[in-house]
C-alpha cells in the first residue's frame, strides 16, 4: 500500500471516529494540551496529507475522565468583580481576590458564569484559571491546608452586602481601638495637670506652651507632630467635632488641646493657669484632627 493510500485510509478512519464521537468542549476542560477547537478539525485532516508523522486521534478529543476539581476556577489577578450580567455595564454582585475559588456553571467564553460562596454571576474569563491549571491549583491549596479538607482550603467570593458588613465592622473596630488608645493618651496627659505653662517650652514637668504640651504627650506614644498649632492643623485626619473621641486634638486660632471626651480638653492654658482642663467649645473650633 503506497503512501497516498495509507493517508487515505487514515483520513477515512479519522473521519469515522469524529463522526461516531463528535468533539464536545466542556467549560472546565479548556486546555490547549488536551482539546482542539472545532475550527481546527479540518487542519488535522490536512496534516495527514502533508506529514508522514503518526497522528494520535486521542490527542484531539476531550478526555472523558475529569479531575475532582475540573469544574472549578480560580482568580488570577489582584481583584475583580462578579457581575450580574456578562457585561461591564451590569451591576457588580461580588468580588474575587487572588486564588479565590468559584464553580463554573456555564460555558467558558469571553465571560463565564460562576457560583462562589453566596454569589452567582459572570466573570471576565481572562481573570480566571480553568481546566488543568485550576485542577493543579486546587490540589495545591488542599495539600497546603493543614486539615486537608477542600472546604477549608478554598476561599470564596465576598458578596456586595458581605463586603459592606465587613467594612462596617472593621470601621467600628478601628474606632474602638482608637478610643482605647486615645484614652491612654488622655490618662497620660492628665498626669501633668497643674504643671507650669512656659512660652516656647516642651517639658511636661518644667513647663510647656499649648503646642509643646500636645507635641510632647504624643511623642511619648511614638507619634510625631509639628511644633506649631498652624502646622498641626494639617496633621492626621480631619473629623467633625460631633465625631470627636478621646485622644483627638482640637485646634483653635493659635491654641490646641487634647480632647478628653465629655466636652472637655486637657491643655497648657496660659502662664496664670498652667496645664489644666477647659470646655472643648470655650471658643471657636478651627479643626479636629485624629492622629490614631
Pairing-aware structural class of the strands and helices? alpha+beta
Instruction: Give the termini distance in whole angstroms.
Output: 87 Å
Q: Can you tell me the overall shape?
A: elongated
**Oligomeric nature of the chains:** single chain
Give the number of DSSP strands.
16
In CATH, the homologous superfamily of the largest domain goes by the name endopeptidase domain like (from Nostoc punctiforme)
Query: What is the number of independent domains?
Result: 3
Query: Can you name the CATH architecture of the largest domain?
Result: Alpha-Beta Complex
Domain SH3b: 70-132
Domain NlpC/P60: 179-292
GO molecular function: cysteine-type peptidase activity
Family: Belongs to the peptidase C40 family.
Word description of this protein:
The chain has 292 residues and is an alpha+beta fold. The protein folds into three domains: 3-60, no CATH class; 72-156, SH3 Domains (SH3 type barrels, Roll); 164-290, endopeptidase fold (from Nostoc punctiforme) (Alpha-Beta Complex). It has helices at residues 3-20, 41-50, 131-144, 150-153, 160-190, 210-219, 229-232, and strands spanning 72-75, 80-83, 92-96, 101-104, 111-116, 119-124, 128-129, 158-159, 202-203, 207-208, 237-239, 249-252, 255-261, 264-270, 274-279, 287-290. A six-stranded antiparallel β-sheet has the order 11-16-12-13-14-15. Strands 6-5-4-1-7 form a five-stranded antiparallel β-sheet. The longest helix has 31 residues, at 160-190. It is elongated. It starts with a helix and ends with a strand. Residues 1-64 have low confidence and may be disordered. Residues 179-292 form the NlpC/P60 domain.
Amino acid at each position: 500500500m503506497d503512501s497516498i493510500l495509507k493517508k487515505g485510509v487514515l483520513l477515512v478512519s479519522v473521519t469515522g471516529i469524529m463522526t461516531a464521537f463528535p468533539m464536545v468542549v466542556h467549560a472546565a476542560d479548556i486546555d490547549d494540551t488536551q482539546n482542539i477547537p472545532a475550527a481546527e478539525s479540518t487542519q488535522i485532516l490536512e496534516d495527514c496529507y502533508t506529514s508522514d508523522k503518526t497522528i494520535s486521534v486521542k490527542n484531539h478529543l476531550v478526555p472523558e475522565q475529569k479531575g475532582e476539581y475540573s469544574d472549578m476556577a480560580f482568580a488570577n489577578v489582584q481583584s475583580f468583580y462578579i457581575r450580574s450580567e456578562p457585561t461591564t455595564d451590569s451591576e457588580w454582585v461580588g468580588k474575587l481576590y487572588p486564588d479565590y475559588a468559584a464553580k463554573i456553571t456555564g460555558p467558558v467564553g469571553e465571560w463565564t458564569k460562576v457560583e462562589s460562596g453566596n454569589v452567582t454571576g459572570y466573570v471576565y474569563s481572562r481573570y480566571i484559571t480553568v481546566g488543568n491549571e485550576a485542577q493543579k491549583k486546587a490540589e495545591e491549596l488542599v495539600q497546603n491546608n493543614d486539615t486537608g479538607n477542600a472546604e477549608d482550603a478554598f476561599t470564596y467570593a465576598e458578596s456586595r452586602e458581605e463586603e459592606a458588613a465587613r467594612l462596617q465592622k472593621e470601621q467600628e473596630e478601628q474606632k474602638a481601638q482608637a478610643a482605647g488608645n486615645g484614652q491612654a493618651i488622655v490618662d497620660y496627659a492628665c498626669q501633668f495637670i497643674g504643671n507650669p505653662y512656659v512660652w516656647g517650652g516642651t517639658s511636661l514637668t518644667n513647663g510647656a506652651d499649648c503646642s509643646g504640651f500636645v507635641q510632647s504627650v504624643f511623642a511619648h506614644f511614638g507619634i510625631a507632630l509639628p511644633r506649631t498649632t498652624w502646622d498641626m492643623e494639617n496633621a492626621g485626619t480631619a473629623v467633625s467635632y460631633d465625631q470627636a473621641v478621646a485622644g483627638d486634638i482640637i485646634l483653635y486660632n493659635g491654641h490646641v488641646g487634647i480632647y478628653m471626651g465629655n466636652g472637655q480638653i486637657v491643655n497648657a492654658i496660659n502662664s496664670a493657669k498652667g496645664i489644666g482642663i477647659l470646655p472643648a467649645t470655650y471658643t471657636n473650633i478651627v479643626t479636629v484632627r485624629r492622629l490614631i
